[in-house]
Design goal:
This protein is 23% helix and 24% strand. It has 149 residues and is of the alpha/beta class. The chain is globular, with a radius of gyration of 19 Å. Keywords: Oxidoreductase.
């Protein structure tokens, strides 16, 4: 059988965020304290992942944080890039299976609550929904406007 493992041939300083081989220096306690100042009670240490997946499986995340706005998301991504902290972004967990070994680093759930309806000049209507939004809630809010009928 052919070895399909990718080889790490990254130029110095250009290691992608998902390369856990280069994240051995990740200090979860220090990162947790730093993120708690920014996100408060929305940051959790050693968070069980099973309740956050529709499949109900998975170990723990070193750090779990819920981001509620585009600005928070951009700030977190920039911070993780600057500090070389591993980051996994997820939505509502409806299409992810976590391993029983869990996730080393930060798992950030995007908990969007915003949507926008845009009417185009040609008469088309486009619905833009923020990542991590709750589809049943949005459908319930849009039904009185004639959507989904």
């Amino acid at each position: 059988m052919q070895d399909m493992t990718p080889h790490n041939n990254y130029p110095a300083g250009n290691v992608p965020l998902f390369d856990l081989a280069h994240s051995a220096a990740f200090k979860a306690d220090m990162v947790y304290q730093h993120l708690q100042k920014r996100f408060g009670s929305r940051v959790h240490r050693d968070e069980p992942l099973a309740p956050h997946s529709a499949f109900g499986v998975g170990g723990t995340a070193d750090i779990w944080v819920t981001v509620e706005s585009r600005d928070e998301l951009i700030g977190l991504v920039n911070l993780c890039a600057e500090e070389h902290w591993p980051l996994l972004l997820i939505g509502n967990g409806s299409n992810i299976i976590f391993t029983d070994a869990g996730v080393r680093g930060i798992v950030a759930r995007m908990a969007g609550h915003e949507y926008q309806i845009n009417k185009e000049p040609d008469g088309k209507v486009i619905l833009n929904v923020s990542a991590g939004s709750n589809w049943p809630r949005i459908a319930h809010e849009l039904a009185p406007l004639g959507w989904g009928v």
